[in-house]
Design a protein that fits this description.
The protein has helices at residues 3-9, 11-38, 43-46, 60-68, 87-112, 116-119, 122-143, 150-156, 161-168, 174-183, 187-207. The longest helix has 28 residues, at 11-38. It has 11 helices and no strands. 70% of the residues lie in helices and 0% in strands. With 209 residues, the chain is an all-alpha fold. The chain starts with a helix and ends with a helix.
């Protein structure tokens, strides 16, 4: 069930979703800044971004995209990668932190859906189902290795330094590459590929419980 159709069919469930969905992208950015702090970079802390205050994180277009397209973004948390201890591990860890947080939120929502009292309540079922779906999409989208998405920085963490520099030069054109992929229909298969990986991981985690 998409967000627009949910608004039309169940406005109560839609408005219940506003907070968890907005905080899905807020927690994503907060995770980047928090892990960067663990690795020694205080840039996000000094910029006032280690907060749950939505006004510090939300970006208008990215927020609208979240509700009308299914994936979106907040203002990127500033990170000074040169300040990170153990630069390669720090780069990979900081970059994965946001996606991993979205995956954890999806796991929590799916776990709650296992309870009969949740499934029996149409509103709660819709809220948790879409929360899981959106977080998986956010995680999958950000794992795509196109600058400036998180996946590109994870990839950079494994590249030799000379290739890192060359790859980073794509960043100013990343937004246009993503838009081109969206309009040519190539972005969805890339997101679905990442989603399949995430669903596999979630299945393994939930099989333990």
């Amino acid at each position: 069930m998409g967000l627009v159709s949910l608004l039309m069919s169940n406005p109560g469930a839609f408005f219940l979703l506003v907070i968890p969905l907005l905080y899905s992208i807020i927690f994503h950015e907060l995770a980047h800044g928090t892990v960067a702090l663990w690795f020694g970079d205080r840039t996000a802390k000094y910029a006032g971004r280690l907060t749950l205050n939505p006004m510090a994180h939300l970006e208008p277009i990215g927020t609208l995209m979240l509700f009308f397209v299914g994936f979106g973004w907040a203002k990127p948390v500033p990170v000074n990668y040169a300040q990170l201890k153990n630069s390669r591990v720090g780069l990979i860890s900081v970059s994965l932190a946001g996606c991993f947080t979205n995956i954890l939120l999806a796991i929590l929502a799916i776990f709650l859906l296992q309870f009969e009292w949740v499934r029996a309540n149409a509103t709660l079922s819709a809220v948790f189902s879409i929360t899981a779906e959106i977080n998986i999409i956010l995680g999958a989208f950000n794992l795509i290795p196109i600058p400036p998405l998180d996946g590109s920085k994870v990839l950079m963490g494994f590249l030799p330094e000379d290739m890192q520099m060359s790859f980073s030069k794509l960043e100013p054109y990343g937004f246009f590459i993503i838009i081109a992929l969206l309009f040519t229909g190539l972005l969805n298969p890339m997101i679905q590929f990442m989603e399949n990986i995430i669903y596999g991981f979630i299945s393994i985690v939930l099989s333990v419980f």
